[in-house]
């Protein structure tokens, strides 16, 4: 029965969302903040004892069935469950999101004309989505949480509704993750057909035991789903633009939730991947390519939030590498560490940007080390952890474990290790660029600013964990059922050297004007190899054109009926040249074969397609909808308001009932 | 036709006459009187049926109907007074703010 306490983890944020979204009490700002705080921190209060009880071995694996349905051989069973993986991830998620919410209370109340109610309602819903995903014991709850997060990320990224840029960014994030989610859904459904149950405990072994061609297909579909959510190359384009959202949103999206969800998915379904060598290898390669690509792009960024976004892409790439080389436990250790230092970096950069000259560009950070010393120290701790400063930071321990595991994983792993090492050096280069810039003397001297304890408190806690958390990496890996690698000494030294070399490079890039100029000019790299523009030219624009053509140049014929025969100009204009050519006498004689195809095409067009254009289906539908309106117009005349008419209706109804009753007994 | 059938026919007639009054009259006072006549129909039916079967429950039900009628008249008169105050006269059709 105690397992049902698990339900109390995602419920408080959900209740917070319902309360704040419906707002029956017309809460004032203070009450909104209090409600959001309680709803955001309650999961941690509930989860921490349960996770600790489980991790110390006091409390075994739990499962709390919610709803079960048997259909033939298939079983649909909704449930939440607690195992080591979900305990670790849920603890991380609840902790980081509580920190982010506390920080957001201070950050958002400073923002101009902030709609706190909408903001916190969505943050709480987002939390609920991630928590139900990590605690899910069946694929339906898992997918629901996954999709809920996708939806909330759209709303949160486009939180600033007056900015078209923010809206476009949210739309992009939504569409790209949706494409990958389709692959995930297909993979989960195929797994369901194989296993006959939605319980993860049955799905995963069934998926791993498959030896038909479906096995690799399912694994590949899951991989694509994870890559889309985790913004892995080539789906990465949505993440850097998602920076249009407020800083706490980025801190939540990029650390423990949303982008990390892909890594959680792969760690959860690791046995399925491990059973298919080719897909596992593809995972490792995709991860390491993304790690290198993200790190290289991050070096060229001029905006600190975009830099951190590319760094998230790159770090999640490392997690994919770990899953790909068969050590999901190490991937999850890196997930925990990354969640700690990435949320720390985002939140600290938000404070620094406020303290600095304004804006989130790296150049604007100059001198902020003096204006906001505590936040700067926290940021430096996070950057050190991100760069993997040897021995003293948590980031080094987890990243080193990933690289060493790759090194031990055969010849492909050797290549992955080499590329990963390069990426690690680049990581150190970009991680310390904002730190060194903040250390430089400011152009104008300003007094030390006030740092609110509400914002700084979470930063200090996270900074301590980002440094000292390294002690926990090895036990965590063992708890999750993995074996920490024992690489040769020179492999570890190479990893340490990469980080130190990178920090030296970072200092060079910041302080040497010649190198700094080259970084500033690396525009192609800054735009992430311009994948965005290419996608736009290759996919988005043609698709929009296609849609516009189908709708006859107007997108609105669903809402009003267009006379038949109209709305077809688009296609006919396309055909016009061919038609004119075919109708010319010399055209006809010179090319009878070509004419035949055009005439045939036109005939097909007139006979088969024209009757449906503009879509008869739409017209019928709208006519039906309007008919309901007319019927309602007539029905309201029944409401005369006269008591006598109602009495008559009552009497007639009674008479009818009596007649029916009499008819039923009549023989 | 036996005695009880005659009485039941009279009861049905009372009910129908009352119903006609409720539907046809516009004055609330008259509608209330018609309602009383409507109630008298079932009451008579109860008494007649009780007498026919030799059971006292019929008469007991008549007392309950009587109490019901008294309560109903109290409510009805309150509505009547309120309507007089609002609309100036006891026209039931004047109170039609619920019209759709």
UniProtKB/TrEMBL annotation, chain B:
* Described function: NDH-1 shuttles electrons from NADH, via FMN and iron-sulfur (Fe-S) centers, to quinones in the respiratory chain. The immediate electron acceptor for the enzyme in this species is believed to be ubiquinone. Couples the redox reaction to proton translocation (for every two electrons transferred, four hydrogen ions are translocated across the cytoplasmic membrane), and thus conserves the redox energy in a proton gradient.
Q: Does the keyword NAD apply?
A: yes
Question: What protein am I looking at?
Answer: NADH-quinone oxidoreductase subunit K
Q: Where is the signal peptide?
A: none
**Cellular component, GO annotation:** NADH dehydrogenase complex; plasma membrane
**What quaternary structure, including any partners, is listed in this protein's UniProt entry?**
NDH-1 is composed of 14 different subunits. Subunits NuoA, H, J, K, L, M, N constitute the membrane sector of the complex.
Is Translocase given among the entry's keywords? yes
């Amino acid at each position: 029965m105690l397992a049902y306490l698990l339900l109390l983890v995602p419920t408080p944020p959900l209740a917070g969302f319902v309360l704040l979204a419906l707002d029956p009490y017309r809460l004032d700002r203070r009450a909104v903040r209090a409600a959001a705080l309680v709803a955001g921190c309650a999961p941690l209060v509930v989860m921490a004892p349960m996770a600790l009880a489980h991790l110390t071995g006091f409390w075994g694996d739990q499962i709390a069935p919610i709803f079960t349905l048997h259909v033939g051989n298939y079983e649909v069973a909704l449930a939440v469950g607690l195992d080591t993986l979900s305990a670790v991830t849920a603890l991380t998620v609840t902790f980081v999101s509580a920190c982010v919410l506390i920080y957001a209370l201070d950050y958002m109340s400073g923002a101009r004309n902030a709609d706190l109610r909408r903001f916190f309602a969505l943050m709480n819903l987002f939390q609920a989505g991630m928590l139900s995903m990590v605690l899910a014991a069946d694929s339906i709850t898992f997918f629901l949480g996954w999709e809920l997060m996708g939806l909330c990320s759209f709303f949160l990224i486009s939180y600033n509704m007056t900015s078209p840029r923010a809206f476009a960014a949210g739309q992009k994030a939504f569409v790209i993750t949706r494409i990958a989610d389709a692959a995930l859904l297909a993979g989960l459904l195929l797994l369901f057909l194989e296993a006959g149950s939605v319980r993860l405990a049955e799905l995963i072994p069934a998926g791993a035991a498959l030896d038909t061609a479906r096995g690799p297909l399912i694994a590949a579909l899951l991989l694509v789903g994870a890559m889309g959510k985790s913004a892995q190359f080539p789906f990465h384009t949505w993440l850097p633009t998602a920076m249009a959202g407020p800083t706490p949103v980025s801190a939540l999206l990029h650390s423990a939730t949303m982008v990390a969800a892909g890594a959680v998915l792969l760690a959860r379904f690791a046995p399925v991947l491990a059973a298919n060598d080719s897909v596992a290898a593809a995972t490792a390669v995709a991860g390491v390519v993304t790690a290198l690509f993200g790190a290289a792009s991050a070096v060229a960024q001029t905006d600190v939030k975009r830099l951190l976004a590319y760094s998230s892409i790159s770090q999640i790439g490392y997690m994919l590498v770990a899953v790909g080389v068969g050590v999901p436990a190490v991937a999850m250790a890196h997930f925990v560490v990354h969640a700690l230092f990435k949320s720390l970096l985002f939140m600290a950069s938000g404070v620094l940007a406020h303290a600095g000259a304004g804006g989130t560009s790296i150049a604007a950070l100059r001198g902020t080390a003096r204006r906001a010393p505590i936040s700067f120290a926290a940021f430096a701790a996070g950057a050190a952890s991100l760069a993997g400063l040897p021995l003293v930071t948590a980031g080094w321990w987890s990243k080193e474990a990933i690289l060493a595991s790759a090194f031990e994983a055969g010849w492909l792993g050797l290549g992955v290790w080499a590329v990963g090492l390069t990426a690690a050096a680049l990581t150190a280069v970009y991680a310390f660029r904002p730190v060194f810039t903040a250390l430089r003397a400011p152009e104008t001297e300003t007094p030390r600013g006030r740092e609110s304890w509400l914002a700084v408190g979470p930063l200090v806690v996270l900074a301590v964990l980002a440094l000292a958390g390294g002690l926990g990496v090895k036990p965590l890996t063992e708890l999750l059922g993995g074996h920490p690698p024992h690489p040769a000494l020179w492999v570890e030294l190479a990893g340490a050297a990469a980080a130190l070399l990178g920090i030296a490079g970072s200092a060079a890039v910041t302080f040497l004007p010649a190198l700094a100029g080259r970084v500033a000019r690396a525009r192609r790299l800054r735009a992430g190899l311009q994948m965005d523009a290419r996608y736009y030219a290759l996919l988005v624009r043609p698709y929009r054109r296609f849609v516009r053509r189908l709708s006859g140049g107007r997108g609105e014929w669903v809402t009003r009926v267009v006379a038949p025969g109209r709305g077809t100009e688009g296609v006919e204009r396309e055909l016009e040249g061919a038609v004119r050519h075919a109708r010319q006498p010399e055209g006809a004689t010179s090319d009878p074969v070509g004419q035949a195809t055009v005439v045939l095409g036109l005939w097909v067009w007139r006979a088969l397609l024209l009757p449906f254009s503009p879509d008869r289906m739409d017209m019928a539908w709208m006519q039906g909808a309007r008919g309901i309106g007319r019927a309602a117009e007539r029905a309201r005349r029944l409401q005369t308001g006269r008591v006598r008419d109602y009495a008559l209706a009552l009497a007639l109804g009674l008479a009818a009932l009596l007649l029916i009753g009499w008819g039923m007994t009549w023989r | 036709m036996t005695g009880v059938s005659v009485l039941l026919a009279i009861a049905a007639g009372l009910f129908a006459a009352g119903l006609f009054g409720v539907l046809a009259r516009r004055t609330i006072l008259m509608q209330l009187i018609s309602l009383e006549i409507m109630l008298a129909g079932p009451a008579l039916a109860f008494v007649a049926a009780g007498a026919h079967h030799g059971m006292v429950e019929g008469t007991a039900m008549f007392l309950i109907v009587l109490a019901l009628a008294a309560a109903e008249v109290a409510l009805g008169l309150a509505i009547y007074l309120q309507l007089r105050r609002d609309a100036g006269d006891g026209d039931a059709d004047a109170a039609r703010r619920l019209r759709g």
